[in-house]
Amino acid sequence: MPAPAVSETSPSFTIRELAREFDLTTRAIRFYEDCGLLAPARGGAGGRQRVYTARDRTRLKLTLRGKRLGLSLAEIKELVDMYESPRDSVPQLKKYLAVLAEHREQIEQQLADLQATLDEVRTHEKEARRLLAQGEQRRAGRARAAA
To answer: Are 22 and 61 in contact, with CB atoms under 8 Å apart?
Structure first.
């Protein structure tokens, strides 16, 4: 994805500003660049300084939202790229709904698995308490018999 030209009137951000705003490390932001999610323009001497536009900021915000939803970086990139294309939004929304449905199903399955595990832990706790109570009763009975 080519880096857009930076306009003098559009807001721009440094990597540190974005890192601070989104509570990320600069390394994380550079990783998102390597994945093709961000494409800052270059400025300064020798083009070594990254210059992020409002578009980059929005893409970063969408990337983090996608991560919170459990999407992979490849899925996030595909969705974000689709929204930047001038195509009809109907296919984009259908793809987004399909991705969300898949992740909802995964989360629901994980939730069911966790519930089953929690039920199993409760059963083991109940059994351990029962055995402990039996052991304490036997010990108390032996203590009474010895007295």
So the answer is: yes
